[in-house]
Amino acid sequence: MQLIPCPWCGPREETEFSYGGQAGVPYPDDPSALTDEQWARFVFVRANPRGASTERWSHAAGCRRWFTAVRDTRTYRFLDVESIGASQPPDHTPAVIP
To answer: pLDDT of 13-47, one tens digit each?
Structure first.
């Protein structure tokens, strides 16, 4: 079992967390103006990088707060976590959290 570091609660088992998708995807200014194809792309098409990926996660079975994480998609290891609304979003630094 992998431990995921919650910014508020510390490391907890991965079963306590829910994946929230790619971080930094802006909501359309006028969603009603989008065509069905544009709306489908917004909802379903996301980057699928090999390596560092910035994502939203929720500590669903704990403090229930959302946070931003940088996770290596090749190894599933979390490289960085930060509370949402912090001064700077996490970057893709290679520092690995045990």
So the answer is: 999 999 999 999 999 999 999 999 999 999 999 98
SS3 track for 27-86: CCCCHHHCCHHHHHHHHHCCCCCCCEEEEEEECCCCCCCEEEEEEECCCCCEEEEEECCC
The sign of the dihedral angle between the CA atoms of 61, 65, 71, 77 is: negative
Nearest 5°: CA angle at 88, between 84 and 90?
Answer: 75
The candidate with the shortest Cα–Cα distance to 56, out of 65, 47, 44, 43, is 65
Return the C-alpha torsion angle 66, 50, 77, 43, nearest 10.
Answer: 20
Q: What's the token pair of residue 43?
A: 């909802």
Beta-bridge mates of residue 56: 21, 68
**pTM of the predicted model as reported, rounded to 2 decimal places:** 0.78
